[in-house]
Write a structure and sequence with these properties.
Order of helices and strands: HHHHHEHEEE
Shape: elongated
Strand content: 5-15%
Number of helices: 6
Largest sheet: 4 strands, antiparallel
Distance between the termini: 49 Å
Strand order of the largest sheet: 2-3-1-4
Number of strands: 4
Structural class: alpha+beta
Length: 202
């Protein structure tokens, strides 16, 4: 394996973790996961490149890597993106069939894409909550009215996760705008008119 590619991978994963992920998301527990995945994949790729391992073994190995998931908790979509980026950088750094210039360009492309896609200014006025309503609502119009009374009239999408007719509850996933069209912040739930039902936010 080229020492230049090794150095490029180490620099890229440090930028990914400590330059992008930590300042934006502040999750220390995932730092070690990203670093180990990157270095581990890099080592495996270097080993496969230096030995006469069959193509089937290599494909099987990366098939196992593709189904890795953390059993302790679910990953958010942006965390999955960082996880996949760390894996991709390791694959590129350990490859031997590509030129160093091309590998460096692909690494930079991954980092730039993640920098832009996860930029805090993108949809910064949008928020998401999962609401547990203490009433089973099957009417879409009534459901939207009740949710608007809680989060405000800036609903972007409303998805019913579960309607429990036995326990009389409805769980919804709502994405909404934190500000109204005039640019003023929406009033809190306590400041709105009381609604004929209570809602808990989970």
């Amino acid at each position: 394996m080229s020492p230049i590619l090794l150095a490029a991978d180490l620099v890229a994963i440090l930028v990914l973790v400590f330059g992008l992920f930590v300042p934006r998301h502040h999750r220390r527990d995932l730092v070690v996961a990203f670093l180990v995945v990157n270095v581990g994949v890099l080592a495996v790729m270097a080993t496969l490149s230096a030995t006469s391992v069959g193509l089937g073994v290599g494909l099987g190995l990366f098939g196992v890597l593709s189904i890795i998931r953390l059993r302790s908790e679910e990953l958010n979509q942006h965390e999955v993106a960082y996880y996949f980026a760390a894996l991709t950088l390791g694959l590129l750094g350990g490859s031997s069939g590509l030129s160093e210039l091309l590998v460096g360009g692909l690494m930079a492309l991954v980092l730039v894409t993640l920098f832009l896609g996860d930029h805090p200014r993108i949809l910064r006025g949008s928020a998401r909550q999962e609401l547990l309503l203490d009433r089973a609502i099957t009417d879409d119009g009534l459901l939207r009215t009740q949710v608007e009374a809680i989060v405000g009239a800036g609903i972007q999408s409303l998805t019913v996760i579960r309607t429990d007719l036995v326990n009389d509850t409805t769980t919804v996933d709502v994405r909404y705008s934190r500000q109204d069209r005039s640019g003023t912040p929406k009033p809190s739930v306590a400041a709105t008119e009381p609604v004929p039902m209570e809602a808990g936010v989970r």
